[in-house]
Amino acid sequence: MQEQTMKERIIIHVDMDAFYASVEIRDDPSLKGKPVIVGARPNERGVVATCNYEAREYGVHSAMNVKEAYELCPDGVFIHPDHAKYERVSKQLHEIWDPYSTASEPVALDEAYLDVTETAGTFERAREIAHLIKERTLKEMELTCSVGLSYCMAAAKTASEEMKPDGYYEIQTPDEFVSLMSDRDVRRLFSVGPKTYDKLSALGIEKVSDILDVRNDVERILGQQGRFLVGLAQGIDEREVTPYRPEDAKSISRETTFQRDVSDYMLLMDVLLLMSMDIMEKASRYGLKGTGIILKISYADRRTVTRYANNLVIGGPMDVAHAAWSLLDGSGRSPVRRIGIGIVNLSNEKKRQTTLFPIEDDSSVTEMEHHLKRMHRRYGYDFMSNAKNVLGHDGFHDVVEHMRVQSVKHTRSGSEFWT
Predict the structure, then answer these.
(1) Which among 24, 190, 241, 419 is least surrounded, fewest beta carbons within 10 Å?
(2) Which one of 200, 224, 243 terminates a domain?
(3) In angstroms, rounded to a whole number, what is the distance separating the alpha carbons of residues 297 and 357?
(4) Could you give the CA distance from residue 68 to residue 192 in angstroms, rounded to a whole number?
(5) From CA 109, how far away is CA 91, in angstroms rounded?
(6) Strand 77-79 to strand 251-262: parallel, antiparallel, or no bridges (unpaired)?
(7) 232 and 320 assigned to the same domain
(8) What's the CA gap between 82 and 391, in Å, rounded?
């Protein structure tokens, strides 16, 4: 193996065990011992967000279609996710974990890398910290986590996965990492997803050690990622733990899957308006402005199209909505299964907005109020008075489903329905 030149670091990776499902079981002890599947219900569209280990014994896994999960595990308990609750729990977890480190980098709600190089000083002390984290997480939160300790981020994550659930493992040196990983399927290597695997497989790479046999081809085909993978195959990962700041985001997006295919053009426009309000509220909260809009549509036949609009002046939700409507209008006329929009090319504003719906001028306010009042009449829901439900992560999907159900009660007209 080539000479090791990495800066000496001590990294802990904490990974909650079946996080969503574990929180639900903690809060409802009657679920203990049962296969718990968090996502959609069997009669709904959707995928498995996560499931506990009892459900995994039936072959259920994250991202699986919920109907397939039901076929594998008909006696499972299917639960809608409560994202607001999971976010609260995640915040409490970080209050336990973060003080042990000089830098904490969250991954979604249930994982984090902790740089304990300075706070621990030695692997022996870091080992004590890792076990303290496990003990406190169980005692204070009644949840289990798996913890990995290592000299770099990739090896720490590999270590945390090694003894799941409720496990602990450490990898102290690059040689230990190479010894552990060299004969394993290359898909076990950090950052190797399905697309990357297909490219590696085309080069005859199946095991991690195979990467070094054709390193030049890997770097040529995969570029920067290829160089990263060649380094990982030698136990090298130079990345530093970087705390996440919402104000550093480059995009903010929102999407929803309809429980039935939607051909109601007016409904799609109205949902896009609500999404525009939601993502602009988030952008404003962190002092962000963007100059581009992305629209993504998945149709009933599983086709997906993505449309962009750039070089825009975005002052408020109506600017986002108008751009999204224009993109929608040029995206075909087929029943829609899923729709989403996002603001891209974000940058920090000098002055943050403080209003719930950031609007630049009175005409935009008037126009948005006009649409929300019209939507109130159409769907029987007071969008102005219930703004928090509209913008809330969990309430949003319920509001959209209510709108969809109400929309089918309207008489079809050429202006509202695609034909």
Answers:
(1) 419
(2) 243
(3) 25
(4) 25
(5) 8
(6) unpaired
(7) no
(8) 14
Name the pTM for this structure. Answer: 0.77
324 and 188, same structural domain? Answer: no
Q: Which residue has the higher pLDDT, 105 or 391?
A: 105
Average pLDDT, the chain: 89
Task: Find out whether 43 and 56 touch, Cβ atoms under 8 Å.
Answer: no
Active-site residue flag, 140? no
Reported as a single tens digit per residue, the pLDDT across 267-282 is: 999 999 999 999 998 8
Q: Please list, in sequence order, all residues whose beta carbon lies within 8 angstroms of the beta carbon of residue 328, skipping any fewer than 6 positions away.
A: 268, 269, 272, 295, 297
Contacts of 77 (CB under 8 A, 6+ apart): 31, 34, 35, 36, 37
Distance CA 290, CA 292 (A): 6
Q: Which of 24, 54, 105, 111 is catalytic?
A: 111
Task: Say if residue 230 is in the same domain as residue 335.
Answer: no
- Tell me, yes or no, whether 306 and 394 share the same domain: yes
**Would you say residue 340 lies in a domain?**
yes
Query: What value does the mean pLDDT take over residues 180-190?
Result: 95
Taking residues 74-84, report their average pLDDT. Answer: 93
Q: Position of tokens 């915040």?
A: 91
Q: Would you state the structure tokens that stand for residue 160, as one six-digit string?
A: 């945390």
- Give dist(CA 106, CA 381) in Å, integer: 37
Q: Flag whether 253 is in a domain.
A: yes
Same-domain status, 239 and 373: no
Whether 113 and 105 have beta carbons less than 8 Å apart is answered as: yes
Question: Of 158, 147, 148, 223, which Cα lies nearest the Cα of 190?
Answer: 158
Domain, as residue range, for 49: 19-81
Which amino acid type is present at position 240?
A: E
Per-residue pLDDT averaged across 152-172, rounded? 97
188 domain-assigned: yes
> Does residue 99 fall inside a structural domain?
no
For residue 213, give both structure tokens: 């046999």
Residue 308 identity (one-letter amino acid): Y
Number of H helices, E strands in the chain: 16, 14
Whole-number Cα distances in Å, 184 to 120, 129, 207, 385: 31, 29, 5, 56
Question: Tokens 């304990």 map to which residue?
Answer: 116
CA atoms within 13 A on the CB side of 87: 6
Instruction: Give the tokens for residue 294.
Output: 């992305």
